[in-house]
Amino acid sequence: MIEREVAWRVFAYEFNSSDFFFHEGDERSPNYLVTPTGARINRLYIVGVFTEIDNLKSEEDMFRARISDPTGTFTIYAGQYQPEAALFLSGVDIPSFTSVTGKARIYEPEKGTVYTSVRPEELSITNSSIRDRWVVDTARLSFERIQLVRRALDSKMNDEDLKAMLIQSGASVELADGIARAIKYYSGLDKYLDELTVVIINALKTLLPKDHHPVIGTKTSKKIGPDFDEIIYELMGQLDKGEGVQLAQLIDESGQSGLTEEQVYESVKNLMSEGKCYEPRIDILRRV
């Protein structure tokens, strides 16, 4: 009996930064996508908001869906070989909080160009509380991997010595192997880990109340003046007649409330990261 692979938790930002795919053993052995922090992914578990679902074929169903987390977007494909997933996607509302367990896949149309995707095994409708819990758990696990990768880089060790050190430091056998592979394959890891850390911190900030974001040098921070995000959110609802709101129209209307174009862009970015709005088409916005 083949043991089922663990379902890893990674943010879309890291998943989409990954392009190292490997296979060991015979044809029945699993394939793995190795991320820059060493997650050795055959299966993964994600929770986010469905923002787009398209049926790409007319004769036989082939669905492409996009599910967003606070760091980016996962792409999901389901067709005739995933009938339950395809049936789910054919009837799910957009937007919807959804959890997905699936297999990591890559598509390389030409050398140097790699697209990641997920082939779903299980999908279910969920809620914002479960999504927020997933963000917290995924952040914690990502920070743990980042710390282990930094330790591996500092150690200057390789191969079995490195894996043994990582396992002693608390890594699983799978993670130790993934980190050893990642530091051999990915270049510029120090810089990438810094970038990923900022991305994760910003993802966690989306879970905080607006008036509780910390300010360096103060014990608390309290928002002074109007809540621009709330203004944009309400205006988006007023302008949407059923097909979404053009970004240009939102900027024009917001100008009458005294908001600058930069403030509109920042508020839209905040609302999207919080799962309160999405972009069904380029420069078209809809509230969740």
Structure description:
The structure is a single chain. The protein has helices spanning 12-16, 83-91, 128-155, 159-168, 173-185, 189-205, 228-239, 247-255, 261-273, and strands at 7-8, 20-23, 31-34, 40-41, 43-55, 63-69, 72-78, 96-110, 113-125, 245-246, 277-281, 284-287. The model is unreliable at 213-226 (pLDDT under 50). The protein has 288 residues and is α+β, with helices and mostly antiparallel strands. It starts with 6 loop residues before the first strand and ends with a strand. Helix 3 crosses helix 5, helix 4 (159-168) crosses helix 5 and helix 7 (228-239) packs across helix 9 (261-273). The longest helix has 28 residues, at 128-155. It folds into three domains: 7-127, OB fold (Dihydrolipoamide Acetyltransferase, E2P), CATH 2.40.50; 133-211, no CATH class; 228-287, Arc Repressor Mutant, subunit A (Orthogonal Bundle), CATH 1.10.10. 40% of the residues lie in helices and 27% in strands. The chain is built from nine helices and twelve strands. The radius of gyration is 21 Å and the shape is globular. The strands form three sheets. Strands 1, 5, 6, 7, 8 and 9 form a six-stranded mixed beta sheet that branches. A three-stranded antiparallel beta sheet has the order 2-3-4. A hairpin with a 7-residue loop joins strand 2 and strand 3 (31-34).
Topology, pairings included?
Elements: E1 7-8, H1 12-16, E2 20-23, E3 31-34, E4 40-41, E5 43-55, E6 63-69, E7 72-78, H2 83-91, E8 96-110, E9 113-125, H3 128-155, H4 159-168, H5 173-185, H6 189-205, H7 228-239, E10 245-246, H8 247-255, H9 261-273, E11 277-281, E12 284-287
Parallel strand pairs: 1-5
Antiparallel strand pairs: 2-3, 3-4, 5-6, 5-8, 6-7, 8-9, 10-12, 11-12
